[in-house]
Structure formats: structure tokens, C-alpha cells
Specification:
There is one protein chain. This protein is mainly beta and about 110 residues long. The protein is about 0% helix and about 50% strand. Strands 2, 4, 5, 6, 9, 10 and 11 form a 7-stranded mixed beta sheet that branches. A hairpin with a 6-residue loop joins strand 4 and strand 5. The mean pLDDT is about 95.
Length: about 110
């Protein structure tokens, strides 16, 4: 059974940083592409970053390019999202996704 558990969300001021983590179990992590998505209130869920197996390639949504960085630690079965220069429009619930499964999400709120 695929399990994804996000952590690291919280309240941060504009310009601040947060690092999200997604701990996984139940599938061969090293053989899976991983991605982060977010959903703000009243909007559709959108993909913000994706990382291939062996970290060969990454993808970023235009809205986060240059500010967010996705990484993975295969030994720890964990994928990370480093978020810098956060803006109020980054406020959303952030979800980890892999193998057609979703985590429960972690709330990120950017506000002064």
C-alpha cells in the first residue's frame, strides 16, 4: 500500500522560506518519479514540481521557477520541496504524489 506523508508546512512571511518533506512507503521509491502539487482555496490542484528517477530531470511550473527546488533522497525514501522567496500567492495545501497516490497535504500560508 502506497503511503505518502507530507510535513513542513506552516505560516511564513512574504520573502521567507519553508522546506516540505514527503516520507514514503509501500512502493519501490527509487523507481518512481515524484511530484509536488498544490491547491489553493477555490482553485484546481496544480503541479508545481516533478523529479524523475535518479534525479535525472526536474520540472517546475512557471510560477515557482527559480524559487522552488525539488530533490529526493532515495536512501531515506523522501522527496523534498525547498521553497524560497515565498509570496502570498503560494498559499495553498501542498500535496505529494506518486504511483497514483496522494498524501494528506500540508498547509502553507504566506502572510504578513
Amino acid at each position: 500500500q502506497v503511503q505518502l506523508v507530507e510535513s513542513g508546512g506552516g505560516l511564513v512571511q512574504p520573502g521567507g522560506s519553508l522546506r516540505l518533506a514527503c516520507a514514503t512507503s509501500g512502493f519501490p521509491f527509487g523507481m518512481a518519479a515524484m511530484s509536488w502539487h498544490r491547491q489553493a482555496l477555490g482553485t484546481e490542484r496544480e503541479e508545481v514540481a516533478r523529479i524523475s528517477i535518479m534525479s535525472t530531470t526536474t520540472y517546475y511550473a512557471d510560477s515557482v521557477l527559480g524559487r522552488f527546488e525539488i530533490s529526493r533522497d532515495d536512501a531515506m525514501r523522501t522527496v523534498y520541496l525547498q521553497m524560497n522567496d515565498l509570496k502570498p500567492e503560494d498559499t495553498a495545501v501542498y500535496y505529494c504524489h506518486a504511483r497514483n497516490a496522494w498524501g494528506q497535504g500540508t498547509q502553507v500560508t504566506v502572510s504578513s
